[in-house]
Amino acid sequence: MAVAGSLLGALMLLARRRRLLTPGTSHDGVVTALWNSASMVAVFILSIPLALIAPAVAPYTWLALVPLRLVSAKVSRRAAQERQQT
Fold first, then answer.
1. In angstroms, rounded to a whole number, what is the distance separating the alpha carbons of residues 50 and 57?
2. Cα angle 50, 56, 59; round to 5
3. pTM confidence score
4. Looking at beta carbons, which pairs linking 41-50 to residues 24 or more positions away fall under 8 Å?
């Protein structure tokens, strides 16, 4: 899971660098995709040692993705608004 999420992020960066994304793809969309990929990898990696310590609690760490995605959306919207103002 960690490798797949990391590769997804790397693929997004490579596609952006080589201009393979559709012209309508915004910078905010790319940042959001990278944030979502990185948060999934981070939660997965943190859940592994937690599963060794407290196996019953480890599946609940995946619920951390919900607030992480909400924060990501809020940060992206705020950055887009700041770019429009300048």
1. 8
2. 70
3. 0.75
4. 41/1, 41/2, 41/5, 41/6, 41/9, 43/68, 44/1, 44/2, 44/5, 45/2
Burial class (CB in 10 A: 0-12, 13-18, 19+), 74: exposed
Range of the domain at 68: 2-85
Q: What is the pLDDT of residues 1-22, one digit of tens each?
A: 899 999 999 999 999 999 999 9
* Nearest residue to 11 (alpha-carbon basis) of 44, 43, 37: 37
Residues near 63 by beta carbon (within 8 Å), at least 6 away in sequence: none
What's the domain count of the chain? Answer: 1
Give the distance from CA 31 to its chain's centroid.
Answer: 8
